[in-house]
Structure to design on (59 residues):
């Protein structure tokens, strides 16, 4: 589902809210697992925190 969310993001008329609703997940989950929606500082962070596993709903 992450790939599907990324494809939908390429469409200018789609919003994070509409994509989350279509996929049946929360906006927070969408923001967490689709890096294009995260702020630049978060994507480039050198934090040592492991990336959480993708939940079943997004697979």
């Amino acid at each position: 589902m992450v790939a599907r969310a990324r494809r939908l993001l390429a469409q200018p008329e789609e919003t994070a809210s509409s994509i989350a609703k279509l996929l049946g997940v929360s906006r927070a989950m969408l923001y967490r697992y689709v890096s294009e929606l995260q702020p630049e500082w978060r994507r480039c962070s050198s934090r040592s925190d492991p990336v959480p596993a993708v939940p079943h709903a997004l697979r």
In short: The radius of gyration is 12 Å. The chain is about 45% helix and 0% strand. Helices lie at 2-9, 16-23, 27-33, 40-43. The mean pLDDT is 75.
